[in-house]
Amino acid sequence: MKVIAESTAAACLSVRELSVHYGGVQAVSSVGFTVEPGQSVGIIGANGAGKTSTLKALMGLVPRSGGSIRLGDKDLTRVRARDMVRHGIGYVPEGRHVFPGLPVEKNLLLGAYSRAWDKDTHRQLDEIYTLFPVLRDMRGRLAGALSGGQQQMLAIGRALMTRPRLLVLDEPSMGLSPKLVGTILDVLLRLREEGLSLLLVEQNAKLTFGATSHCVVMENGRVAMRGTSAQLSHDPRVREVYLGL
């Protein structure tokens, strides 16, 4: 059973000359990259490299001091963060940010807030439960009572309920056990096989290289290298200087 709605068409993400300043400090400087339809791209780099600032600027969660963002034929440069989902970008934030006082199922259904709830919504809910069976078992439990790994599954499921053309994930493995990291990798690979475009920021190099086809390496707020995940995973400079491997 497919998790991604068959009517959902992929679109190319194009980021050009993206810059971010915090006060007088430039955190991101003229960053550019693309995510082609159906492609999975990782952004990697050491702590403080500007990865999360880049993602938050893309989503409109921090002010951009320059640059442009397009998804397909839509210019999203001036689109507010709360409206990004309406244009086809699903977001899994760092730290999950589920609604702890609501049941699992209500959390998932809130992912579909931008469209009418109908039989198709509930069909998609069943598909999320197929992807994450543990969420089906806990559908009536408060999200705040879930483990960290279960909350991460819930955050991904909620983002998928938006029927995204692009799924953006910020540090999905943070705080998870190696076993749960493997579960997240399996899910990302399945989504990738189904043709969903992915953009992943992640400290876990094994997860990033395993889940993506291409990577952008950041250093001091700039793009330092780019290439296929297979190439970069074996590059001594990437392993030693940027990832500390």
UniProtKB/TrEMBL annotation:
The keyword NADP does not apply. SUPFAM superfamilies: P-loop containing nucleoside triphosphate hydrolases. Keywords: Amino-acid transport, ATP-binding, Nucleotide-binding, Transport. GO terms for molecular function: ATP binding; ATP hydrolysis activity; branched-chain amino acid transmembrane transporter activity. It comes from the Bacteria. The keyword Flavoprotein does not apply. GO terms for biological process: L-amino acid transport. Residues 13-245 form the ABC transporter domain. CDD domains: ABC_TM1139_LivF_branched. Belongs to the ABC transporter superfamily. PANTHER family: HIGH-AFFINITY BRANCHED-CHAIN AMINO ACID TRANSPORT ATP-BINDING PROTEIN LIVF. This is ABC transporter ATP-binding protein. It comes from Streptomyces fuscichromogenes.
